[in-house]
Amino acid sequence: MSDSITILGLESSCDDTAAAVVRHSAENGTEILSSEVFEQYDLHADFGGVVPEIAARAHAERLDICVENALDKAGLKLAEVDAISVTSGPGLIGGVLSGVMCAKGLSVGAGKPLISVNHLAGHALTPRMTDGIAFPYLMLLISGGHCQFLIVHSADEYTRLGGTIDDSPGEAFDKTAKLLGLGYPGGPLVQEKAAQGDVKRFKFPRPLLDRAGCDMSFSGLKTALRRARDQIVEEKGGLTVTDQADLCAGFQDAVAAVLTEKTRRACLAFMEQTDTKTPVLAVAGGVAANIQIRAALQDLCAEQGFSFLAPPLKYCTDNAAMIAWVGVEKYRAGAFSDISLNARPRWPLDQSAAPMLGSGKKGAKA
Ligand code: KG4
Ligand code: ZN
């Protein structure tokens, strides 16, 4: 008998409406049959960040068509999937609710089991979907809504080694871009400017490097950047293209330095807490696309004897294939939900870790 499982996944916890179909079998491994993402950048660009109410409304309007597209591209009817998995937290509650309501409707309508997925588990388990890696491994999640180090022991067991105590690095990139008038989302624009800048002109702080452990802070960096900007404006009446580039280079260098040093500590903690002979560091989140950060992490891994794994960017950033994949893992474990499933704005993966104050203001409260 075939052990093939086909899952329809839904994601709407931040500013991307997404639906995907993923199939897994012993014979063919993992097949991502479709992965549809409707971005909302245009809706939030004027605000320089995600507006929760606008996001929730857009999800509600787009989810059904997104699901239809995902099924069409997979060449399947809803009746042909085995279950529906949906992000039920953490995230912006209006958006999460839109997804949960849609998934419940599909589940009841088609008579298919419902699977509740933690958005962070989606990111954390992506390397298993894309590269089939074995547990345990070290995960660094760096995006607009999340920033944390996790030891991934199994699909439902995680140790959180540390994370941001205020802004995520993605928020810091976005705010930097806003302060310098570059546009949104800020990451790629700051990176582009930084490539032309003089990294030595501004020496920005490296927050929390003096504190033991893997916690990070990025909000002070933003304040330092604002001060440097204001000083130039006061002296010269405005910023030149060179000023912008130098500020971006200094900022990006500081983020890369903090992430690298904290990752070094996470690697050591991982080796202490597991008995792995072939350690892997996997990254996820939009900030993992940053060329300087990626190169620094790659060098660090080489030095620490870790393999470095960065899944393709479309599966690193928010998508529904990762939610469908967690659906596969939970389906095999028999972990189903029912119609009473609730959306959870906060839902840490490691329930035993102390909550992080104010972490991930843009989306994930975990
Ligand atoms: O993972 P993601 O697409 O969405 C969530 O936040 O969940 O990450 C988006 C974030 C944004 O803050 C964006 O500015 C940042 O990732 N980003 C980057 C780069 N590309 C995207 N940050 C730095 N460098 C980049 N190349
Ligand atoms: Zn995410």
Provide the fold topology.
Elements: E1 5-11, E2 16-25, E3 29-39, H1 41-44, H2 52-74, E4 83-89, H3 93-110, E5 114-118, H4 119-131, E6 137-142, E7 147-154, E8 157-163, H5 169-179, H6 186-194, H7 219-236, H8 241-273, E9 280-284, H9 291-304, E10 307-309, H10 313-316, H11 321-333
Parallel strand pairs: 1-4, 4-5, 6-9, 9-10
Antiparallel strand pairs: 1-2, 2-3, 6-7, 7-8
Helix pairs in contact: 2-3, 4-11, 5-6, 5-7, 5-8, 6-8, 7-8, 8-9
Structure description:
- With 366 residues, this protein is α/β, with parallel strands linked by helices.
- The chain folds into 2 domains: 5-128 and 315-364, Nucleotidyltransferase, domain 5, CATH 3.30.420.40; 136-313, ATPase, nucleotide binding domain (Nucleotidyltransferase, domain 5).
- It has helices spanning 41-44, 52-74, 93-110, 119-131, 169-179, 186-194, 219-236, 241-273, 291-304, 313-316, 321-333, and strands spanning 5-11, 16-25, 29-39, 83-89, 114-118, 137-142, 147-154, 157-163, 280-284, 307-309.
- A 5-stranded mixed β-sheet has the order 3-2-1-4-5, with helices on both faces.
- It binds 5'-O-[(R)-(carboxyoxy)(hydroxy)phosphoryl]adenosine and zinc ion.
- Zinc ion is lined by residues 119, 123, 143, 145-146, 318.
